[in-house]
């Protein structure tokens, strides 16, 4: 019986009914030419149900009895009740994205069964735009976000004429060459890129933006931002939460974010974090709950250097979101200064030290189920913002194009909101998961994200690609 | 802040992720003349969503913080997130009863949110027979099965032309005269009827059945059956369970069961329990798991004497199911003897004593979450069989006829199966809820129930109403 590392068991130990520790994803597929949504859904259901050769990751569950061994060791089921794990759903009319997000919100609130491998896959019909959605739920003790996306990507093909699509758990996929390797852009180099880019602190600033904007964050000093360990303020995000969730999701053209990044010589991640900073400021103002001190965001950083698609390998950097700053340009400068400093801290650590630093950052999670803990302890950070790279080119499953790939992450006691995003070939896909009762009108953050991107485009002096009124 | 009686808080205390303590119901409605299923579903959704005047029972929740006060006291929400509590669903094709039962199975496994009133209502379309289903989930700390059915019944009308249908939680319903009272058959007299009939131990035996059969259970002596406190055998029903459930349901014409009861001078409840005895014997033989000793069933008995539709008022009698007896006639005799004896015990108790006896019977529930408890303690009983009276005449909601009314009860550690049934005007509606992993092919019990009823018809010498091959 294989024993669990603490980076896996912590997600089982910290889990309560109010704080389920599964993450998920929502993928949208366009049926291939001449295929109806119903036909695609049935093709997926039949293919997935008929796959009996299931790789070990999808047969792995906490050992029995759950209370004694279940957080210490894994066991493997020989048979899987596929009818339980693979579910079919139809949205009620009118079948808008709203009904789809509602379906995910309600299902993401429910705990996974610990007496079987802890994953579910829902194939969802009834979207009025003719697409088919797949919502997946998998326990964080099994995979982290990067591993999960790698699983998805490995099951897809860059070739629209490929008809070898199979279930995501098919053992055959383990023998398939990962599509990303064939393009020469290795996952490893992509994952380490954001850290590598932190070296470019003094890099040349190019682009067409106003000079004042460029200078604002080029002239960074150590005094210009809060140190990584500054305490986060108490906010409505740092509260004990109920079990109900609300999921909100939206995608933006990658070109828009890239244009801002190029104009200002900052990374895509910098753009994303600054969008979140602006959106959270606006949302907290809506709620009449903006703290005087700036929000602190934790951003998980992968320390994974192999091609494995199992387990967890994550540390974190802390970013000052400068939500106290009303001016978008100054807010951007403060955010960038803070994340660059934080990346320098991480870069000075060995992989093991980085993991230990991450563990220390997330350690309070394990204490969160203790009554009173959240309320009496100042938060270390207010919100998790996670950027997980997805497939970098158009991908297909049996000819059906992947047209959206949204992460559905974890809200926790003291972390009522999680923002995770996935980059795909042409899109940046944001998935927001929040405590439904504690964060009213969560979906308004999507509008604020759009406004924050507008603001950044103005700072960068780039023209939005869409029509401007 | 009102404090909870232990008969309510015990269901909150005993609840774990593997052992959710909510019960529910599945009702089927036939759209009125000229109305489509979609139109009926939309009418229900709109009516339920537009009811803002919500009676206190549906605004009541465990006080916060849940861990400190939540199992001691109730609080009341002023506002309800109706969009969360009332849900709309569509079954995937082909929309058979099988897809409906699967929907209920999967949703009944999920815990209710404790930070809001603990109930949900799902309006389900997509049945190929044109009916609309309503699946409800309500925490057992709020209501027992009888109260829940009374809530339903109070929202329906015996008049097919009545168009005053409203939400089940509408305060207006509190002022509506309960329809049952208008017929003169009071709930109290119906509930106490089975106990009253126990007095007829020496009653005349009438009917057309074979004489031998009648004599078999007329000649009861105290030696012919196990005493009420005989230990139950260890079976596959008395095991720790996972959180996943399977729900199976079927209805039989009440006339068939009444014919058997009349022929043998036994109650409807006697017929039902003997059907369960035969079905469980056959199922355990299927599973190669029939114990040498007979199964013991606990049958909750209401001690409620008022018209309240809140709270819990339940005791229990123990029945020897004689599953060791291969002969249907001898099995029937042993079951009847045992239940009559048990009823005599209860009849000798005051209402308070009866409740205390019930509490002692169910006390181990509160200990079940403790690791190892179930496995090391001999079970007091193997299965719960509960008979809850439903509406005694045809009932309608805005002209849509109630055409099926199935209970969806609770499985627990050590009680992997629960059989609850509801009698309506013309039908006896069985609902079986079981632990999905621990009780394979649970739905086969339905076939065995039908066979057991056939056997009883032979013993009673009554002709089945359906065509016999």
> What about the largest sheet of chain A?
6 strands, mixed
Largest interface between protein chains, with number of residues from each side: A-B, 35 and 35 residues
Assembly state of the chains shown: homodimer
Strand portion of chain A, in percent?
15-25%
Label the CATH architecture of the largest domain in chain A. 2-Layer Sandwich
Strand order of the largest sheet of chain A: 4-5-6-1-12-11
Helix content of chain A: 25-40%
CATH superfamily of the largest domain in chain A: Nonribosomal peptide synthetase, condensation domain
Terminal CA distance of chain A reads 63 Å
How many distinct helices of chain A? 16
Catalytic activity (chains A, B): an acyl-CoA + a 1,2-diacyl-sn-glycerol = a triacyl-sn-glycerol + CoA
GO biological process, one term (chains A, B): response to nitric oxide
Family (chains A, B): Belongs to the long-chain O-acyltransferase family.
EC number (chains A, B): 2.3.1.20
Structural features, described:
The structure is a homodimer of 469-residue chains. The first copy, chain A, is α+β, with helices and mostly antiparallel strands and 469 residues long. Chain A has 2 domains: 6-173, Chloramphenicol Acetyltransferase (2-Layer Sandwich), CATH 3.30.559; 212-385 and 410-460, Nonribosomal peptide synthetase, condensation domain (Chloramphenicol Acetyltransferase, 2-Layer Sandwich). Helix content of chain A is 35%, strand content 20%. Chain A has 16 helices and 14 strands. Chain A has helices at 6-13, 37-49, 66-69, 82-85, 97-108, 145-155, 179-182, 187-197, 211-218, 254-264, 268-286, 328-347, 351-362, 364-367, 373-376, 444-460; strands at 22-30, 60-62, 74-76, 86-90, 119-125, 132-139, 245-253, 296-302, 314-320, 383-389, 396-397, 400-408, 417-423, 427-435. In chain A, the strands form 3 sheets. A 6-stranded mixed sheet of chain A has the order 4-5-6-1-12-11, with helices on both faces. A 6-stranded mixed sheet of chain A has the order 7-14-13-10-8-9, sandwiched between helices. In chain A, strand 13 (417-423) and strand 14 form a beta hairpin. The longest helix of chain A is centred in the last third of the chain and has 20 residues, at 328-347. Chain A is globular, with a radius of gyration of 22 Å. The N and C termini of chain A lie far apart (63 Å). Chain A binds chain B through residues 17-18, 38, 65-68, 81, 84, 87-93, 106, 109-111, 113-116, 125-126, 240-244, 371-372, 436-437, and chain B through 17-18, 38, 65-68, 81, 84, 87-93, 106, 109-111, 113-116, 125-126, 240-244, 371-372, 436-437.
């Amino acid at each position: 019986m294989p024993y669990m590392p603490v980076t896996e068991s912590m997600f089982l130990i910290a889990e309560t009914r109010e704080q389920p520790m599964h993450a998920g994803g929502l993928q949208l597929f366009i049926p291939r030419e001449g295929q109806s949504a119903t036909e695609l859904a049935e093709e997926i259901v039949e293919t997935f149900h008929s796959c009996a050769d299931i790789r070990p990751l999808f047969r792995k569950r906490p050992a029995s009895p759950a209370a004694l061994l279940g957080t210490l060791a894994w066991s493997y089921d020989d048979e899987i009740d596929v009818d339980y794990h693979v579910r079919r759903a139809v949205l009620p009319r009118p079948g808008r994205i709203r009904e789809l997000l509602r379906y995910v919100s309600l299902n993401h609130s429910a705990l996974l069964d610990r007496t079987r491998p802890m994953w579910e896959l829902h194939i969802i019909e009834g979207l009025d735009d003719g697409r088919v959605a797949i919502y997946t739920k998998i326990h964080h003790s099994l995979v982290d976000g990067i591993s999960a996306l790698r699983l998805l990507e490995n099951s897809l093909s860059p070739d629209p004429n490929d008809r070898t699509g199979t279930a995501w758990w098919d053992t055959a996929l383990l023998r398939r060459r990962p599509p990303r390797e064939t393009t020469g852009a290795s996952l490893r180099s992509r994952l380490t890129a954001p850290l590598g880019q932190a070296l470019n602190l003094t890099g040349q600033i190019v682009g067409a933006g106003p000079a004042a904007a460029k200078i604002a964050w080029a002239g960074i000093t150590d005094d210009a931002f809060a140190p990584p360990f500054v305490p986060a303020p108490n906010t409505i995000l740092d509260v004990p939460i109920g079990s109900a969730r609300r999921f909100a999701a939206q995608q933006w053209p990658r070109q828009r974010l890239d244009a801002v990044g190029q104009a200002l010589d900052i990374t895509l991640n910098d753009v994303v974090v600054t969008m979140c900073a602006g959106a959270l400021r606006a949302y907290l103002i809506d709620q009449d709950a903006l703290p005087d001190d700036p929000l602190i965001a934790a951003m998980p950083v992968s320390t994974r250097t192999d091609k494995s698609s199992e387990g967890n390998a994550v540390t974190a950097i802390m970013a000052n979101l400068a939500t106290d700053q009303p001016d978008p340009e100054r807010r951007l400068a403060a955010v960038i200064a803070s994340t660059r400093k934080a990346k320098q801290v991480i870069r000075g650590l060995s992989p093991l030290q980085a993991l230990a630093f991450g563990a220390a950052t997330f350690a309070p999670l394990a204490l969160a189920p203790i009554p009173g803990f959240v309320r009496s302890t100042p938060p270390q950070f207010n919100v998790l913002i996670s950027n997980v790279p997805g497939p970098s080119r158009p991908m297909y499953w049996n000819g059906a194009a992947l047209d959206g790939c949204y992460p559905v992450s974890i809200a926790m006691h003291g972390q009522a909101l999680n923002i995770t995003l996935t980059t795909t070939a042409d899109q940046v896909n944001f998935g927001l998961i929040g405590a439904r009762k504690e964060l009213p009108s969560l979906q308004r953050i999507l509008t604020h994200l759009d406004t924050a991107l507008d603001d950044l485009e103005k700072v960068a002096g780039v023209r939005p690609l869409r029509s401007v009124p």
